[in-house]
Here is the input.
Amino acid sequence: MFAPHTYIERRKKLKEKVGTGIILLLGNEESSINFKDNWYHYRQDSSFLYYFGITHPGLTGIINCDSGEEIIFGDELTIDHIVWSGSQPTIAQLASKCGVNKTLPTSKIASSLKGLVHYLPPYRTKNQWKLSEWLGSPMNFISKGASIELIKAIVSMRSYKTAEELTEIEKAVNITADMHLGAMRYAKKGMLEAEIVGKIQQIAISGGGNLSFPVILSKDGQILHNHYHGNVLQEGDMILCDTGAETTMGYAGDMTRTFPVGHEFTQRQKELYQIVLDTHEAAIAALTPGIQYKDVHLLAGKTLVNGLIEVGLMKGNAEEAVSAGAHTMFFQCGLGHMMGLDVHDMEDLGEQYVGYNDSLNKSTIFGLKSLRLGKKLEKDFVITVEPGIYIIPELIDMWKAENKHAEFINYDLLETYKDFGGIRIEEDFVITESGSRLLGKPVAKTINDVEQVRAESLGLMHE
Amino acid sequence: MFAPHTYIERRKKLKEKVGTGIILLLGNEESSINFKDNWYHYRQDSSFLYYFGITHPGLTGIINCDSGEEIIFGDELTIDHIVWSGSQPTIAQLASKCGVNKTLPTSKIASSLKGLVHYLPPYRTKNQWKLSEWLGSPMNFISKGASIELIKAIVSMRSYKTAEELTEIEKAVNITADMHLGAMRYAKKGMLEAEIVGKIQQIAISGGGNLSFPVILSKDGQILHNHYHGNVLQEGDMILCDTGAETTMGYAGDMTRTFPVGHEFTQRQKELYQIVLDTHEAAIAALTPGIQYKDVHLLAGKTLVNGLIEVGLMKGNAEEAVSAGAHTMFFQCGLGHMMGLDVHDMEDLGEQYVGYNDSLNKSTIFGLKSLRLGKKLEKDFVITVEPGIYIIPELIDMWKAENKHAEFINYDLLETYKDFGGIRIEEDFVITESGSRLLGKPVAKTINDVEQVRAESLGLMHE
Here is the structure.
């Protein structure tokens, strides 16, 4: 964790922003797999991490904006626990590491919550239940009672990454880069997708941390969140690999590469890959403080459509096609999202507050409703840029039956692409004074560079 | 999954055993990491798997003992889901795979639960909440309302592994054996423990399945459930590695090996390792239908004490020492547990019902209270045998201060072992007509064999 003053300063600022009342921040408990004591890898809540930095399970923090008092609640281990889990620091020792001097047992929480209590919307049912018990409010009412002031205050702090945070994020992105290069070098035809997933996980864990989200790796890249890894890879397939590491402190990396199982892309794959790459570069070139990310997203859409018009999959005017939403046949999701202590940073706080604001509401139409970040970029935001082309047979059938956007989509040609799959290219950037900076070391991205890595890994020389 | 008739037969038998009322079996939902849609690796509930076999999230099954009716409740995907997660079978298609013909949306569950409802104690808060909502009972009352009849009926079925289950379990144990051999070959001084953990996880995932529980791997083997992997390995350290694979169907393997970071154990390590190995072999030799596992556990304790007397760490009469509980200074936990769809099979149903019965209650004294399985062994039980020696400094200090069991423990010598660590050897067995059979392929276990693997992996020849 960072030095105590980082957390002391953050809490001081948070108190000032929220102004009055008690801020209640719940840490996470262990999470059961198939029986109580068989646990998933422990993950602390990110806002708890941001303000207290402690990665132990079962803690709760309160910050009293009026009296200034800060308390960490938790229960000490018994000798039975020590036998099973080893000697552990006391709650007071843990608290002192983030500059909190007062600790109390968990049983004292409810009576400490008098008056106005600010809490965040829970994403784990266990914490929802705790809030329900402590606040004497029914389970179903808990999410509605979350504090908008607290959400806005936290978003206004966590959105701007400090130098020490950027160092941690870059560490995560560098391990992420190793995972991608590892996958690109390891894959061979005849392999199960799961074998590459195993290799990726090995690299993430060997780095001392973990994955920031479950590996998305598939020859069916058109399935955006594909966690099925049972396919056998064949010559001619492309692998879409979207994966990221998380450091021990909880900071995330998130990248995507798409590469051929053989040593070269097919002609068709090359054409669409180049369109995605051009779109990626156009979006990166547009990154600068003050530009709405929604506009970068729409610019990316236009670049994509222009490329698709060139290969004959779309037609008409690119600007009009994007306005009408016709590009969402190929690019159904958003261009990117905030990244930090969460891979989709602060997604638990609500996208309307994180990626949008009072003057820009999140859209509800297909495509734009999946854009997690729409508002103006600012210095020290960390974001992903991840355009893609996804050929989804079910969507083609559905739209074609309605003749939807037929003035922009060449359905006859598109029919012949139904087995194409998907392509995504994703990197992480920090917004600077005048533009943006790529985080982490570069990984092969152009067609030539990717084919070079593949050829080398297959023991072939590549001209 | 198995063929439909397996599940049809199981449900038929379960209905007969429970007799009357509605059996309600909850499948698991996705489980959130740090925001709602960032999910841990999905794991279906094991009893749901046993009776329905379906590994999709969000399903619930009911089996009406009186009318015979069986229903699977679940909700169909929308086109939005298909874009993100790909085309999926319908609920009816899923249900047909396990021979259930009726399906309904989740909203119909509460009204289907009339009269006596049998359910299992939930280990995930989400399922506890669902039960609370459906049954109109407060969250805190749900666990107490679990059906003892249903628990006993399920234990009386899941305890006896069929031939097709044994094949699956053996698959899991074989991958587990590969994980252990992989670790034993991969480890080198200077490595972070996490690097070996990564290697193990790679092998588990490449096998198409996953881990059956988080890897326990440490140079501090005395910490029984040690998930900290931040130590750097040094010559003279021993690595205790306790890990297991889970197949795609959910069956578990679970083994432990302890090996030196160098190519040889030290003299002291050899002495205690041989005691654990002798204890392991004595316990295995005793496995046979009809013997109480508690007696095998106590026999193991006696063998262990005899060895410890020989090296001078204990004194007096072994039988008396075990009766008094003095051996729990070194062997604080149980000899083993049931294994099947869970690594600690059916632990969620309650150890009193799984490992004990009406005529044998689980002990509450230190040591025996950690013995998960105490009752008589029967043909087709699958169990682990895992004795160990753990030198726990905190426990030594505590007992020594009380002069506890001073007639059996040589505290002066023990003080010099405080940095020793821990040793465990664990394998999986099925109880046969006349004894037991080792599951899976053998992995180096004697001092010579382990040192041979280490020497080979370090590029040394071993005499």
About this structure: The two ends of chain B are 48 Å apart (CA to CA). The domain at 4-158 of chain B is CATH 3.40.350.10 (Creatine Amidinohydrolase; Chain A, domain 1).
